[in-house]
Amino acid sequence: MLDVVRLRVLLAVARTGSLTAAAKELHYSQPSVSHHLARLEAETGAKLLQRVGRGIRLTEAGRLLAERSAEIIGRLDDTAEELAAHVGLRSGRVRLAAFPSALGTFIPRAAMRLAREHPGLRLHLTETEPPEALRLLRAGRVDVAVMFRYDDTEPEDGDIHMIHLLDDPSYLVSPTPPGELADHAESSWIAGCDRCRGHLLDICAKAGFAPRISFTSDDIVAVQALVAAGMGLTVLPGLALTAHRNPDIEIARVPGSARHVHAAVHGAPPYPPATEALLTALRTSL
To answer: Which of the residues 16, 149, 257, 265 could staple to 153 if both were Cys, CB 3.0 to 4.6 A apart?
Structure first.
């Protein structure tokens, strides 16, 4: 069976005339577009594109498939619009996975907005860190995953579309006024999840030292309590400190350090009406 997402990619290439323009239109990376087309050629057993100088053009088989794809996708989009108009989001469900500090800050506001605007739509929430949220999204077990990534995080490949929500600054957390990161090369450190631990190692390396990590926990309440007790220092994002702030800690912003929070969706737009409603609620609740 042909993959509809890959047919949409072929249509974008046919419409724009280049891989770069198609990637820009779809908000994909160019390697992702190339990957989709290669998979589509493998599925069909046909050569769909050919190089012409520094550009590309569709083969006869590619033009035929693009024409049929336009018809198929047009019918799918029409059906989705008709169904959305018929249902009017008066019933159904939408499933969201998110990391703890997002669930403790802006997601409840998004849930309230969604319930107010679409009272028949049921929101199912799952708390999990980004790698597991991504697996749930790929497996079709959630419709949207609110995830974070750092500048040095490996990009998500395949059919994952990332919608930027906010940049969340990092803070050095200490039981006393913390000063600069480089002042604590000999201190003990408390690390968080794997992605956060990698970021801690990266920013400490840029400050000229390797942190001596004495404890690891995903629990921001426990981590802050340990810092307050003098068991070590840590780096936490702003959302975590908004969700919970121990009164016995001091913080200082780490210059140039932030995590990027996105809503991840599988495939390319347009999305089902319930998914679009959730994305709108997330964007307007920050």
So the answer is: 149
Q: Do 107 and 96 touch, CB atoms closer than 8 A?
A: yes
Mean pLDDT, 10 residues at a time, the chain of 286 residues:
86 89 85 89 90 84 89 76 59 89 97 93 94 89 94 83 97 96 96 93 96 95 97 98 97 96 91 91 96
Using an 8 Å Cβ cutoff, are 99 and 129 in contact?
A: yes
pTM of the model: 0.70
Nearest-CA neighbor of 2 among 59, 49, 72, 75?
72
Q: Can you read off the two tokens belonging to residue 177?
A: 């006024």
End-to-end CA distance of the chain: 40
Q: Put the strands of the sheet holding 160-174 in their side by side order.
A: 122-127, 93-98, 144-149, 250-266, 160-174, 234-237
Task: Fill in the amino acid letter for 115.
Answer: A
Question: How many beta carbons lie within 10 A of that of residue 20, not counting itself?
Answer: 12
Q: What is the pLDDT of residue 3?
A: 85
Q: State the maximum Cα–Cα separation within the chain, in Å, rounded to a whole number.
A: 71
Cα distances (Å, whole numbers) of residue 179 to 147, 173, 251, 256: 30, 10, 9, 15
From residue 114, give the alpha-carbon distance in Å to each of 101, 126, 145, 167.
19, 17, 16, 23
What is the H or E stretch that residue 251 is in? strand 250-266
Q: Decide: 138 and 158 in contact? Cβ < 8 Å.
A: yes
In degrees rounded to 5, what are phi and psi of residue 190?
-115, 125
* pLDDT (0 to 100) of residue 84: 62
pLDDT at 186: 95
* pLDDT computed for residue 33 by the predictor: 87
